[in-house]
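QA checklist item 7 of 12: single-chain prediction sanity check.
[x] sequence parsed
[x] length recorded as 575
[x] structure emitted
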Amino acid sequence: MIINMRHSIFGAGVIVALLGLASCQNLDLNPLSQGSSETWNSNEDEIVMSLRDLYRDRFWPTDQESWTDDYTNRDVTSTIINGTLSGQTYEVTDLWDAQYKMVSRANTVILNAYKAKAGGLSDATVARYVAEARFLRATAYSRLTEKFGDVPYVDSLLSIDSAFAYGRTPVAEVNRHIYDDFEAAANLLPSTYSDERRATKWAALGFEARHALYMGDYARAAEAAKKVIDESPYKLHDDYADLFLPNPAKSNTDEVIFALPRSEELYDKSSATEPYVIHTQPYLPRMHGGYAQYCPSWDLLASYLCTDGLPIDRSPLFNPKKPFDNRDPRLAATIVPFGSNFLGIEYDPSPLKTKVMNYATGKEVANQDTRYNMQYASYNGLALKKGVDETWADAGFLASNDKILLRLAEMYLDYAEAKIELGSIDQSVLDAINTVRARAYHCTKDQVTRYPAVTTTSQTELRRIVRMERRMELAWEGLRYMDLVRWHLAEKALTRKNYGMRYPMDTSDSYMHNWFWAAAPTIDEDGLPDFSALESQQKIQALSQRSWTNRQYLWPIPTTDLEINPKMRPNNPGY
């Protein structure tokens, strides 16, 4: 029976605990020389080992860009984009299994850490480790509720009978536990660690702010985010582009509140064990030995404001033939500008550029990044720049950028959005948005002549502005999917086509004259671009059709769990 339940909450979490309870029937089954559920967590070293295990990459998934309108993979769509999510989909079962394993292991620490007191560990130290475990448990439950809604809430060891009678807990009740755990962690965790990357009180408050924002608990979100902004030691990194590199020119820990380190040196290629790294070839252009496969979308390119603060369809500064000119600086830090020196080679997808400059040799070479020369160059002409440096093209095509999960800029935007939704708009809201925007222009919020400062106090306008600001600031950081979900824009953004250049490339005089876009796409009230006019003029080509279905606003409970435990039924609507 246990083998058949390996994909259920009771296989992943509760059964592990139950096996530990079963071993109590005969203590001789646990050799004193080895760790077990009966002898483990009895001293500080064992507790720390248990906690460190919960910082593994698999327990900290980020939403994939392929689930959003910021991404293109040639003419391929993901399961979520094509509307075929089910209770057997890998993304569903893997998230469920991993998070409940994390819950189970955190619960084990919480329930057993007291044993270390017998070994001389102080009450305060034990309480701090329990608080860290509660932080870890809260992050797991936050990911579960954000995707599945009502989920089983388990904070103790269950008997086999009670495990099979366990149903789903209303999301409001689960949220109360999540907030209690985050608050306890914020009160007891240290502000910093000198030699490790582990949860701090600021991480607890930051993740609480994010989850509260996602759940529509705006007052809580604003309060938690404001504490991080006002009281934490973090500040915005001087250079936005440098912040995401594998080896920033200056440490990015001034802004990054929580991250998982990656290590190319420690990566085991034969078994693909942690710590995970980035396999860079699908992202890199052809000139650098890459596949030019995973690329930013035209939707993302169109979303960045011009330097006058206006969208591209309203700004007189926008030139569709030169889409990177006069744009918010974060665009050039996220997507490789045409004609720029990218990792030592000129990047230009134009059909006019059959040769490009290799700056290392000082000679022109055949351009493999235009579809005029190479069919499998980027289908939309775009290439990712955010976080990319020379190490991405090194032998092995592995990169070890930190997996940044929480940083201060998000806290400013979380705070601003929460206050806007509360209708509590004051100068602090404008300051929060302008602080983030000004950093992109290498100035401070008070230097209003150097960047397009936000001055309006209209709730409708500010809602639109903060949503566009999030898209520009947080692009390709795993946050766009939940933004679309919680704003209920997925049904709009993820039912539109994904566009690229016509292929075979049009070499007519008209097309060459109007490279790159013949005109700016229309930007609607939600900041979403509409390329349909360009398509109807046959100036561009649809690469794929996004086909979101509204049932996916909540994910399905894994099929195996529903089959094993009738108490888990019914599934979320539509599945």
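[x] summary fact logged: Residues 214 and 486 are 6 Å apart (CA to CA).
[ ] second reviewer sign-off
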